[in-house]
Each structure stands twice: as C-alpha cells, then as structure tokens.
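One-letter codes give the sequence; the integers encode the fold. A sample entry reads:
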Amino acid sequence: MHSIKYIIWAFGIYLSLSLSFFSIAFAASAGNFNQDFEITWGDGRAKILENGQSLSLSLDKASGSGFRSKNEYLFAKIDMQLKLVSGNSAGTVTTYYLSSLGSTHDEIDFEFLGNLSGDPYTLHTNVFTQGKGNREQQFHLWFDPTKDFHTYSILWNPQSIIFSVDGAPIREFKNLESKGIDFPKNQPMRIYASLWDAENWATRGGLVKTDWSQAPFTATYRNFNAQVCVWTSSGSSCSSNKSPSSSLSQSWLRESLDSNGLAKVQWAQKNYMIYNYCTDAKRFPQGPPSECLP
C-alpha cells in the first residue's frame, strides 16, 4: 500500500450561513487504517490489523463496534473490500456508508443484512438528502460474501451517486435538482462503518433472531482506496477567487453511467433486486417519488 498522496487546491465557495466558508482539498488515497480512520466505539471489539492494512469489527451480546474516517469529504470515489460475517449471521448488520450530521443530514448507505446459514445475504442501499431517506433498494448478492473479500464502491460527485459491487454498478441516484429533488452536494460527510445487532428487523423483517451462541460475529475491512475532496476548516483559502475547474477536470468528478454501465445496472436489478422503493405502491399510494419517474 502506498502512503496518502495529496494534491491540494483551494477555492472559495459559499454554501450556507450555517456552514460558512471552508476549503476543499483534492486527495488520492491508497489508504492505511491507522492513518485514515479512528475507532469510535466497541470497547476493544474493533481492531486495526496488519500494520494498518485491515480492520476487523466484532459483535457480541454486550456490544457491537464501529469506526469512522478522520477526514470529512465533499465528493468522493471510494472502494472498500469487505468479508462479511460467516455462518448464521441472522440479526446482524454490517455497514459502510457516508454521512453528515444533524437532523437534515445527507447519507449514502451500504448495509449488509445477516442471514441463516445457506441463505443469501441482503445488500441494502439507501440515499438520504436533507434528512429524508426512504429510498431503499435491496439486492441478493450473486456470490457468498463471507468466503472472500469483495469490493464495494461509492462514487459521489456533483452529477450522480453510483453504487458498485466488484466494479459493476448496481444503482445510480442522479442529481435531479432541475426537477426540485434535493441532491447531497453541500454537506461534508465522513465514512462510517459498524457491526451491530438489529434482530428486530434485519433478517426476514425480524422473524429470525440473533443466535448469540454463534458470537462473537466478525467482519473484516481492507484495501480502502479513495479519490476524495477533503473538507477542512482552514480559513486561509476561504476568500480565494480561484476557479475549481482544476479539480473538476478530475475524471471521477465528471463521471456518470454510460450505456454499458446502465446495462449492468439493469442486469443487477433484473436478476438480483428484491426490493425497490420506486415500485412500492403500499408505501407510496399517491405514485412513485419524483426521482423514480422517467
């Protein structure tokens, strides 16, 4: 793994009175968990291993565990490899997501819902904007995510949010502000991850409870890699009039799905999607939410 490499640039941007002015730095990171993350809870159940090359989270009846990135980001392209809880993981939830803070927070979620041995894992995705979520799409993975590490990616740029598995996009949430739909682009977010007990809803709607005789449950993270805009509170570039065009020339900041990418999303959704909020007439009897419409 390489150390973090920074190409720092600054520009002035006005966001809101509550957020004021900040500076943003572009960074490419082939990460080290010691350098890029901090353990936030779990009383020793989270462990950074292999000189920072991997991190494990564990859950027992007393507590789960979690970590978060040291930096906040405003736009990012993130890869993280995970090996999920093996065996009977019913009731457990392993997460990896981006989130800001507060009642009007933005959030981009990967959640992995545990299962009975032999049943498929459920991959749960969601997008929150200004505190509003209810945009769930769920998939059954087409491989056993407990046998080996697989790469789960989030691309978040001014145009789109794209969820990918092993490089194949499975979902895109487009910036549709032109239609009056909020898009997360003003609030910096950290990366969070956790392993916790959600037996009341995680497996078959809570019908299957956690078997604590199988504890401790363990999930492992490795190979964090990111291209990010780092958000800092440095005041030195607040009033800079420099154009952000130099950063926007980075290809990932302009990336969206082409026809090949859209075909992969359609393949995943046709073959492996098990829930789509856009087609849930019980939750949305007045019709699909605006972002679901063509």
In short: The two ends are 43 Å apart (CA to CA). Residues 259-272 form the longest helix (14 residues).
